[in-house]
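Q: What would this chain look like folded?
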Amino acid sequence: MEQRYATSPEHVPGMDTAELRRRYLVEHLFTDDAVGAVYSHHDRVVLAGVVPATTTVTLPTFPEIASATFFERREAGIVNVGGPGTITVDGEQHKLEHGACLYVGRGAGEVVFASLDATGAAGAARFYLFSAPAHTAHPTTLVPAGGGTVRELGDQVTSNRRTLNQYVHENGVRSCQVVMGVTTLHPGSMWNTMPAHTHDRRTEAYLYFDLPADARVVHLLGEPTETRHVLVADGQAVISPSWSVHSGVGTAAYSFVWAMAGENQAFDDMDGFAVADMR
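A: My prediction, written as structure tokens:
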């Protein structure tokens, strides 16, 4: 488990490209038959990737979180961004198609990941996990791909027409503090989340997927009046502290998993910034 320590807005102006990527971009979550994980000290969230390419993979207990099991004091939302697979939680198996989400509550024990096509990376499931500390328990719940609360946002004229599926949120699958969903851009749209905004009370992470191998998303971060950018490939994530905008434009259409944790679960608790005011 890699550790990422918290940063403040004052750090950003002095960062070069390499440091921006080292602090905020998570490049190597997905490795065949393994678990890759990053612990961020922004709201103590954990991002993890699991690829059961040729065998099942059991979620380990990382020494960095100092608990008997991963979910002893945590909860998580897990989205499958690969081929069909299963997640077995304490003996109960859940099938996840591409884009489906499983919420796992505090107190869960053994968690085992498997692909329905376990013959190699091509057809393997790729599970993306976003976890935060939890002080209460909610039941493990599966949401099928395209389920949850569906919101249509944006406009084709501004190239940001998109379908947003809210999976784990205050009016959907209940959690202690994790909020999670999937957004898919419509054909011909490339921008996500514009006008941009911050969540001064929550940390958010974007995991980009369904992006062609030769395409990239130009992801904006930093304070609205001191923005920077990183180029993001398929299967990579960006950690967005509470003071940072999070928006991007792709060279091709894509989807992304958005996930938050922090002070509250209100989806619309955000501070927007007009495009003309950004720098």
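The first strand starts at residue 2 and ends at 4.
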